[in-house]
Amino acid sequence: MRYQTIDIRRQTFSFFVYFGLLALVFVGSCAKEKLDNIIDHPNPFDNGELSPVRIINAAEYFNVIANGDSLTSFAGFFSATSPSVPFGGPWYSASMGTEYFPFHGYLGREWRIPQRLFRDNGRLDLFFQHIMGYPNVENNPAGNILGLTIQHTDNRPVDYYIGPHPVEGVYFAVDRDETPSSQPDHFKIRVVNLASDVETTPNFYEPLTLTYADGTPVDPRTTGIDASRRVTDYVELPYGTYQFRVVSQTGFQLPGTDGRTEHMITDPATLSLVSRDVYTAPAKLHHLVYAPIHSYQPGGVYTIHVYPSKFMWYRIGFFEAFNFFENAFRVVQDNVPTANLKYGRAQLVNALPGSQLKLRFGSGGSTEDTPYGQASAYSTLSVGETQIALTDGSGDMLAAITHLVQPNQHYSVYAYPDETGKPQIVVIANDLSGNGELMPFRKRFINLCPDIPYVTFTRNDGESMGQPQVVANLRPGIASLEDPYISGDERQEPYEILAYRSAPGKVPGVWADDIPVLQSHDFIARNELYARFGGNLPTHEPGYYTVALIGRVGDNVPPEHKARMVIIKHNR
C-alpha cells in the first residue's frame, strides 16, 4: 500500500487562520473606520455543499486521506494513564484543527463527506488510519490502515460503517432514510446490527431485541435480529424521552456507548458499570448496564447501531486499566429534524381515591382510563391554550382547567381531592432535558394528600436529601418549581424514602409511621431484567421520577385508600 506524504501547509492552515482572526479583533477594537469599509472574507472552514454520503466511525480511526490529500492533523495523541483509551474519552489531547476538521483535527464518530471531495465521475478514494502519527510503514503497520473507494453518482443517502465487521469486512454500506414519519408527531427508529463474536462470550451477539427501559420489546420488526437480518425496517413511535436497551435472547444487556470514560469502565463478565474508591481496591459492580436516555424529536429519524466497542476494566493495585472489546450500541441521528414548535405532551396521574379517570383535551384527543394510583401514557397536544377536562368512568366532567401548552413540554396533570373530597387538578411541567446527563437519576416530590397540610420527605432516618424547597414542608397540590429535582447515580447505596409530618420551623418533623416506606429498589420497573446478575439488583434505575403522596388519613379510610407514596416515571 502506498502512503501519502502530508502537506505541512494544511497542518499550519488553522494556526494562521486563528492568528489572523485574533489580529482582526485587536485592530478592529482600536480602529475608527466605518463598518462598511470592512472586507467580508469567506469562512475558511466552509466546505460547501455536503454530499449524501456519511462515514460512521465504529472503530478508532482518527486520520483521513482523501484522493491523496491529508484532511486531518496527524498530530500525536496521548492519555493520562494509557496510550490507548476508550474512543472519545476525555484524555485525548487537543490537536490543531484543519480545514475539514476545524475543532480537533481528527475524524470523529460521524462525518458527512463534502461534495467537493468527489471527483467529477463520482469516485472518492479514502484511507483511514488507526494509530496517531505520520502515515509511514515504520510507525503504522498495514493493519491500521483501511482503504475505501466510494462511487456515488446520485442523491441517495448512504452510510458507510467502518470498523471490525468480520462478516461484512472492513465496512458495511446501508441506505439511510431521512424522510420524517408519516405521522408528524412521531419519530422513526431502526437497528443496524453489526455485532460479532468478540473477546468474551457469544451470549452478547445472539439474536438481539430493541426494548424500552423496562426490557419490554419495542416492536416485532426490531425483535430477534440476527446475522441474517442486519438492518431492520424503521419503526414509528410517538416523540418523547426514551431509554432504549438492546437485549440478547438469553437476557444479556448490551451497554450503550457515548465516549465518556465513566461509562466505559465495565465488568467484562456482566457488562455492569463499576467503580472503586482507591486503585488498590477491587472494583465494585453496580449491576446496572449503561443505556443513554435521549429525547427523540417529532420528524426525527434515528438508528441504533450495534457494533464491537472498546471498554476498560480495572486491574487491582494498578491505576491503569486494561482494554477489552464487547458488543455495544449507540444512537445515530439520521436526519436533522426541525425544532418542535407544534407539540406538547400530557399525562394523567390519578390520585383521587376509588376512581377511574380520564382526561379530555379541547384541542382533541384524550388519555386512556386510568385507575387510582397510576399514571396514563402521554398524549400529544397542539401548542396553545386548551381546555383540560377531568372525567370519571361514566364520562361526567369532574373538573376542568384552561392551560397554555408550550412547545416540546411534558406535563403531568394530577387529579386529587381537597379536604371535602372534591376533585382538584393541577398541571405540572416536567423537565426531561437532563442538563446534559445521558443517564440521569432525577426525582421530584409532591403532596397530594389533603389531610397532611405539610409533609417533608427524607432519606433513611430523617436524613436530608435535597434543598428545602424540593422536599420540605410541601403543601397539598403545590409543587416546587425552583430547581425541583434531586439527583443521584448508580454508585449510591440502597436507601429508604420516608414521609414526615412537618410544619414551618419544624423540619423534618414527626415520622409518619402510618405511611409505608419506599425502598430504593422500588425504582426498578422489572426485576426480571436483571436475572443475569445472579439475584443481584442495582440500587435503583435511572430516569425522571415524581414521588407523590396520595390517599387519605383517618379511622374510616379503607385500607386501599390510606395515604401512601407512589412513583411516577416520566420517561419510557
From TrEMBL:
Pfam families: DUF4397
Record key words, sorted: Membrane, Transmembrane, Transmembrane helix
Regions that span the bilayer: 12-29
UniProt xrefs under PROSITE patterns: PROKAR_LIPOPROTEIN (PS51257)
Source superkingdom: Bacteria
InterPro entries membership: DUF4397
All residue ranges annotated as the DUF4397 domain in the record: 348-456
This protein's name: DUF4397 domain-containing protein
Organism in which the protein naturally occurs: Parapedobacter composti
